[in-house]
Specification:
mainly beta, 4% helix, three-stranded antiparallel β-sheet, 1 helix, flat
């Protein structure tokens, strides 16, 4: 109980990242995506996060994931996985998708 999770992070050198949830016990870990507007945290007023998303929302909590849920987002979007507060483990695959051009071929 109370284990796992990740710090807030991004993925460099990739375009898309995501989660594929395999096991999601009640009270288990879940992803949070944070507002990407630069320096918004410096000017935020006190705001009570509710269930409705508005322009003032500072994060989106996906606390309703079930096995089979797949989430995709831009890799530059700050995200994290909360600590697990369930007796069972949350099991998920966290992945990135990247595209890199092949090096030009020399024909000499």
């Amino acid at each position: 109980k109370g284990n796992g999770g990740t710090n807030v992070h991004i993925h460099k050198n990739s375009q898309v990242c995501g989660w594929f949830f395999l096991e999601t016990p009640e009270g288990g870990a879940y992803p949070i995506y944070h507002d990407v507007r630069m320096n918004k945290q410096m000017v935020e007023l006190d705001y009570v996060q509710g269930g409705e998303l508005t322009n003032a929302s500072s994060a989106v909590h996906f606390n309703n994931v079930v096995p089979g849920t797949v989430l995709f987002a831009n890799s530059w979007m700050q995200h994290q996985l909360t600590p697990n507060n369930a007796q069972g483990q949350t099991k998920a695959v966290h992945f990135i998708i990247s595209h890199k051009d092949k090096a030009p071929q020399c024909n000499t």
